[in-house]
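Translate structure to sequence.
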């Protein structure tokens, strides 16, 4: 090390009790101890050298904690010289200011930014052992953070920095990564006492000492005294000085570095080289090594389980083309050659690059070779130089196996490396998936993107949209209301079961959501010519009267549930989401001149604004106000409230990130946090208000998942909330965006274990009748038409409109069991398809979703 003349420091004789032999016969395993130096961005260079030299001279490792954004060029060059000279003793730990407590994709993005920053700081061509694999980040929180996203940027562990008001961080993290909490930096003079206390209280856990050389109150002789004592403790096996990367690798059970193996195929016309390629891949497969072949030749790709083309297909790949089974992957020359995200290509293999793995703002996972085993490289030497702590991508070009001798050397080197118990070789897809931690939300986004061409809306056939056929559907759905309307209140039973003798058993309780569907049904019947204007006004007048009677006198709010025969009786609660549906329906009712004034007076008489607290919708249950923010109905409801001049926040208002992909991922994580998504109210929003950016994203994701499930199983999928013809009588059916396995759920209002099994979920999953019509109305596509045709054929009852749905597993309908919401939504959908006014009114803000923000 240069300038050692500055290190003539005073000798140390007074050491703390830490360095004295401990009493007692018990022998303890030595404690791993890491020393981290902070404040390196601004401390004088002489002070740093003076602090570090005693440790270096005694072979004591040091971790150097630096913030790339605050480190100038001269200090960066200084740090680079240090790690070049002492790669085994020094570990650079970059600091990322973005908190790591965020979903996996945003961890990947933050960690990738940190990787780019530290690469810019230190430059390329570092000794492999010194490639940073530990990230320092603010980490305060009540629970250990999940670290599933760090590895996608090449980091294997994290050091959690204390934040304002926090103490020491937890010493463990969830997911297959390691983290440790740091205390606030202390002067070197305090280090002996700190370590002594940590060893006394730590119970054998690793000890991390965060020290700041050059603090004003530090003693210039402290580094030498501490290093001398630390070396003595090491020599008598009280401690094991270690770097954070070493501690982390030993601490993770079964920890392995991953090798992603890429073999570039020569052309079939390459003669002996191509034959050598086949011999190499045969030998690797026989040895159990996974790999990915890069080729544009369909016949070559067909030979292998994992292949990736060198260029993306411009159109739909023909049968047999390697792109057909590799639509997620492409090999490119460099980062600038990555295709746009619209191609659906999420895995980008670079020929060369400064960073082995990173996540871009387009959501594309880039992999670049850590080493290229070409004809100029000795494979065993090159593989042996790779860091034992870091994952690596190994690229094998044709020149590496152009001769038999080279091929044999290469084969031995690769099989020997894979035989190491701390190394696992994978194909690049599996390699990338492991680095990302298997994030199902990320996978769902890219499933949707890859299916973009397949799920693009297209006009339905004339048979599906024939006006006469749609009018027949409307008349069928209107049967429900003709049969079950109460002539005194204008209300209808919410569900009905037809007995074999022709009698009916109805459920005479109605929610405000149901009542909204009734209002929409009446308006559709008017616009479609099923009833005359006088009938419509009479029905609407009865409903307005019932709503007056359903208003809670004290709270001045509509009841959450009422009796169809006596609207003044029912629950004394208030449901904000259901009221949102009602307000949307009343908006449509008020478009009729004769009804505008009474509707406005009714809504004005409700104390709806009083239920908005902290900008959020609230319901009232058992007299207590409760927030209704994290619900999929809330975004829809806020648009309805907004129309009536009552703004409220939407949980979907998270699409304000740096890139479009970041915004979409933020929305998908929020949707996953809330729970399963179904056709309602996503598609209802489009019919009643026009689609918002948020509902547009979620609609595509849901449609793609349903269509993909149909292609895979042959069973149509079409989920929404729906009544059941038996106990527990109602279910919320939808897509779980973050599901690792079976993604479609059937949730009931009972916690009984029999309702939680996958068998129950599959047996009770339905093709929702109303959802099929909504898809046909909002998202025209051949699959939507298939769903519509199926419901028309199997779900039409003789006397009460359309039944609730068809059981997906058996194809059997809910015979003689129908509900008002299903038939009301079907009438809405038909009205929309035939050009009814299910679109924004002039009084609504023109920007979709603007009232909800």
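Result:
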């Amino acid at each position: 090390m240069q300038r050692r003349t500055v290190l003539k420091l005073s000798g140390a004789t007074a050491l703390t009790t830490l360095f004295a032999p401990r009493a007692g016969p018990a022998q303890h395993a030595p404690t791993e101890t890491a020393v981290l130096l902070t404040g390196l961005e601004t401390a004088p260079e002489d002070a740093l050298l003076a602090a570090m030299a005693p440790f270096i001279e005694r072979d004591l490792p040091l971790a150097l904690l630096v913030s790339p954004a605050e480190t100038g060029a001269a200090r960066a060059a200084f740090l680079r010289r240090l790690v070049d000279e002492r790669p085994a003793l020094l570990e650079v730990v970059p600091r990322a200011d973005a908190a790591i407590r965020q979903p996996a994709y945003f961890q990947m993005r933050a960690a990738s930014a940190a990787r780019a920053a530290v690469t810019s700081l230190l430059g390329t061509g570092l000794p492999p052992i010194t490639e940073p694999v530990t990230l320092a980040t603010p980490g305060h929180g009540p629970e250990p953070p999940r670290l599933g996203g760090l590895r996608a940027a090449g980091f294997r562990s994290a050091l959690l920095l204390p934040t304002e008001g926090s103490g020491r961080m937890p010493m463990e993290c969830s997911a297959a990564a390691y983290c440790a909490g740091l205390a606030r930096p202390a002067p070197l003079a305090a280090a002996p006492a700190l370590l002594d206390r940590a060893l006394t209280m730590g119970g054998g856990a690793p000890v991390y000492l965060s020290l700041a050389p050059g603090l004003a109150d530090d003693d210039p002789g402290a580094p030498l005294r501490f290093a001398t004592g630390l070396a003595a403790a090491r020599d008598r096996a009280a401690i094991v000085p270690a770097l954070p990367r070493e501690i982390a690798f030993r601490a993770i059970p079964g920890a392995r570095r991953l090798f992603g193996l890429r073999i570039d195929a020569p052309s079939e016309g390459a003669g002996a080289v191509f034959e050598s390629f086949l011999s190499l891949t045969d030998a690797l497969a026989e040895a159990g090594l996974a790999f990915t072949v890069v080729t544009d030749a369909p016949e070559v790709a067909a030979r292998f389980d994992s292949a990736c083309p060198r260029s993306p297909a411009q159109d739909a790949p023909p049968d047999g083309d390697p792109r057909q089974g590799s639509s997620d992957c492409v090999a490119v020359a460099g980062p600038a050659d990555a295709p746009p995200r619209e191609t659906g290509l999420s895995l980008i293999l670079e020929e060369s690059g400064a960073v082995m793995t990173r996540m871009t703002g387009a959501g594309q996972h880039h992999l670049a070779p850590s080493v290229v085993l070409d004809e100029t490289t000795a494979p065993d030497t090159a593989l042996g130089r790779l860091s034992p702590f870091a994952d690596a991508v190994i690229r094998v070009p044709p020149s590496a196996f152009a001769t038999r001798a080279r091929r044999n050397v290469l084969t031995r080197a690769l099989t020997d490396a894979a035989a190491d118990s701390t190394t696992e070789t994978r194909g690049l897809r599996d390699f990338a998936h492991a680095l990302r931690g298997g994030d199902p939300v990320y996978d769902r986004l890219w499933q949707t993107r890859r299916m973009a061409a397949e799920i693009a809306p297209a006009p339905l056939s004339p048979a599906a949209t024939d006006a006469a056929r749609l009018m027949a559907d409307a008349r069928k759905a209107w049967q429900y209301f003709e049969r079950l309307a109460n002539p005194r209140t204008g209300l209808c039973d919410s569900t009905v079961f037809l007995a074999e003798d022709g009698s009916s058993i109805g459920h005479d309780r109605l929610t405000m959501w149901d009542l909204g569907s009734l209002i929409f049904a009446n308006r559709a019947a008017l616009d479609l010519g099923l009833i005359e204007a006088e009938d419509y006004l009479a029905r609407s007048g009865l409903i307005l009267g019932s709503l007056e009677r359903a208003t809670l006198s004290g709270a001045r709010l509509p009841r959450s549930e009422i009796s169809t025969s006596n609207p003044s009786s029912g629950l004394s609660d208030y449901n904000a989401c259901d009221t949102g549906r009602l307000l949307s329906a009343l908006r449509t009712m008020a478009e009729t001149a004769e009804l505008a004034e009474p509707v406005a007076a009714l809504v004005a008489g409700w104390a709806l604004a009083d239920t908005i607290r902290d900008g959020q919708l609230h319901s009232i249950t058992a007299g207590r106000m409760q927030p209704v923010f994290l619900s999929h109905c809330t975004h829809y409801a806020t648009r309805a409230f907004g129309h009536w001049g009552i703004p409220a926040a939407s949980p979907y208002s998270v699409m304000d990130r740096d890139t479009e992909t970041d915004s979409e991922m933020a929305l998908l994580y929020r949707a996953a946090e809330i729970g399963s998504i179904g056709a309602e109210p996503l598609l209802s929003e489009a019919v009643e208000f026009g689609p918002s950016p948020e509902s547009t994203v979620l609609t595509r994701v849901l449609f793609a998942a349903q269509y993909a499930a149909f292609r895979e199983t042959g069973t149509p999928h079409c989920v929404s909330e729906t009544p059941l013809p038996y106990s527990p009588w109602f279910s919320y059916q939808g897509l779980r965006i973050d599901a690792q396995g079976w993604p479609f759920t059937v949730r009931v209002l009972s916690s009984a274990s029999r309702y939680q099994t996958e068998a129950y979920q599959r047996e009770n999953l339905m093709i929702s009748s109303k959802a099929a019509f909504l898809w046909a109305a909002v998202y025209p596509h051949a699959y939507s038409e298939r769903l519509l045709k199926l419901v028309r054929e199997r779900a039409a009852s003789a006397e009460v409109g359309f039944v609730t749905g068809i059981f997906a597993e058996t194809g059997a309908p809910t015979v003689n069991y129908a509900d008002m919401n299903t038939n009301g939504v079907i009438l809405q959908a038909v009205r929309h398809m035939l050009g009814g006014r299910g679109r924004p009114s002039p009084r609504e803000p023109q920007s979709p979703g603007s009232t909800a923000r």
